[in-house]
Design brief:
By secondary structure, the protein is mainly alpha-helical. The protein is about 80% helix and about 0% strand. It has a single domain, classed as Up-down Bundle (Rhopdopsin 7-helix transmembrane proteins). Helix 2 runs antiparallel to helix 3, helix 2 packs parallel to helix 11 and helix 3 packs antiparallel against helix 4. The radius of gyration is 19 Å and the shape is globular.
Length: about 240
């Protein structure tokens, strides 16, 4: 802890050797830049796609606000802002699930699909928080992590093989292609988070995985997934807008 405190600058400035703080800094700037991009592009789309772009902007904007706060928390305390990170995820991850529903409405997606994905994402996050911040000793992290993983795999199944996949196939073309891209983000990009979880908690996996900087892993994952999700939606909207023009 004494060495870690060397990274804390009483003036609130970023120490060049603080790589964790650096990822918070870059993350906050990247999220805010992405938000500005999505919001400023709204006027070029018709009503049909404006909602999807708006949601993309909200995801990165909410994340940006939390990243500014988490960055300051890290500078002041030199410890992981776990609670505030999960607050961010509880707002942004369900919105990412909403994006699946919005692009599949053209194929007849019902609100029930959206609520199923949202419910599963909330279960995934709440159980993950319990394992990372509440029941942190003994088998607690492993058990709660397994429950969180079960909810995650339900989302993966639903979008890769369940009703969401069937709707995407029915829509075909650009919708199917964009749906597949979002599915890959969930399968590969979201899989980064369990790695961070295991690096930051103690369990059967610690013996071979070890421990590491959970915040670096989470910050990288957030930038890849939240901005990447939005860019996929933006590209789809541009294609559809050009077709109509």
């Amino acid at each position: 802890m004494k060495n870690l405190l060397l990274f804390a600058d009483v003036s609130g400035k970023l120490d060049p050797t603080d790589y964790v703080g650096f990822t918070f800094f870059v993350g906050s700037m990247a999220m805010m830049a992405a938000s500005a991009f999505f919001f400023l592009s709204l006027s070029q789309f018709d009503r049909k796609w404006r909602t999807s772009i708006l949601v993309s902007g909200l995801i990165t904007f909410i994340a940006a606000v939390h990243y500014f706060y988490m960055r300051d928390y890290w500078f002041a305390n030199v410890e992981s802002p776990t609670f505030f990170r999960y607050v961010d995820w509880l707002l942004t991850v369900p919105l990412m699930c909403v994006e699946f529903y919005l692009i599949l409405k053209v194929a007849g997606a019902k609100p029930s699909l959206m609520w199923k994905l949202i419910f599963a994402s909330v279960i995934m996050l709440v159980t993950g928080y319990f394992g990372e911040a509440v029941y942190t000793t003994g088998t607690g992290p492993a058990i709660w992590g397994a429950l969180s993983g079960a909810a995650y795999f339900y989302i993966v199944y639903e979008i890769w093989a369940g009703s969401a996949k069937k709707l995407a196939v029915a829509a075909g073309g650009d919708i199917l292609y964009s749906h597949k891209l979002l599915c890959w983000f969930v399968l590969v990009g979201w899989a980064i988070y369990p790695l961070g979880y295991m690096l930051g908690t103690e369990g059967w996996y610690t013996s071979f995985l070890g421990t590491g900087s959970v915040d670096v892993v989470y910050n990288i994952a957030d930038a890849i997934n939240k901005i990447g999700f939005g860019l996929v939606i933006y590209a789809l909207a541009v294609k559809k807008q050009n077709v109509l023009s």
